[in-house]
Amino acid sequence: MAHALLRAAPPLLATPEDAELSVAAAEIAAPSHRRPDLSTAWLYSLLAFMVVAWGLNFVIAKVALREIPPMVVASVRTVFAGIFILPIFLWRTRGKRRSWPARDVAALLGLGILGAVGNQVLFVIGLSRTSVAHASVAVAISPITVLVIAALAGQETITGRKVVGMLVALAGIAALQLGRTGGRGPTLAGDLIVLLSGSVFALYAVFGKSLTARFGSLTANTFAYTGGAAIMLPLVLWQSTAFDFSRVSAAAWASVAYMAVFSAVLAYLIFYYALQRLPASRVSALSYLQPVLATILAALILGEIPGAGFAVACALVLIGVFVTERG
Fold first, then answer.
1. Sign of dihedral through CA atoms 66, 68, 71, 74?
2. What pTM does this model have?
3. How many angstroms from the chain centroid is the CA of residue 36?
4. Among 65, 149, 174, 213, who pairs with 10 as Cys (CB 3.0-4.6 Å)?
5. Which residue ranges in the chain fall short of pLDDT 50?
6. What is the DSSP annotation of 191-247?
């Protein structure tokens, strides 16, 4: 989902499937912002870890959903992410003056909660009703959602080539639905909810652009996750009255922790660290591996084998996104 973010705005530190830097802006700004580089091998090792972390997130979430209801997974994941990111923020901003006008605090919290909570709640609910393969392709179409919302907001221009790319990607989504076999496999409702989660994050990416530019990605994400944690913690406590947390296995708890720590925070830290040292288009291109990797991992770990037409649908979506992003 990271390639969706690049089209929208300045860089975010962390999100899922979530106000980022456009490819052109990043490539123009990169030379003046480059830091002393690590070895190329180490940098690409970090990027490989990032791609695997995001691809594995779909599978790990499925493991958690075997024992924990979707709303509980989303709630606990948000609380864990807030707890994890706050010390990073305090350490990175130590010795610096922290002051934000009340109006900006409200905006940071509102948009952040929309992106961190709204997006993830819908993603987890949708994933519980569909397959990893379908969910990963639905997430991959997010750049087009960002583009459409940005165009409506006057931040992007829709060209003929972009329209062609969108139509190709939508044909891929249609092919994905035609390939469903019914039964206990992926459902239309699940796919649509995952698509809706991408739309919610697109709203955050587009309308949070100016706030992220002013306050920085770390501040924006800290408000998002700690604000989300503050809202979701009472929900977690309330859920504990109806759900027996003591019956959850260590594997399920580890899965939720993974979603918060590795996918939501660490992978995005690597993503934006790499943006300071490599062209943005090269970093974002790695995200095209996400649906393929997630599907392979789901087949190996969960035994989820996609339908016969999945490869064609996935190829259409990725080609459509590629054409749209370069239109």
1. negative
2. 0.81
3. 28
4. 213
5. 1-36
6. HHHHHHHHHHHHHHHHHTHHHHHHH-HHHHHHHHHHHHHHHHHHHHHHHTTTS-GGG
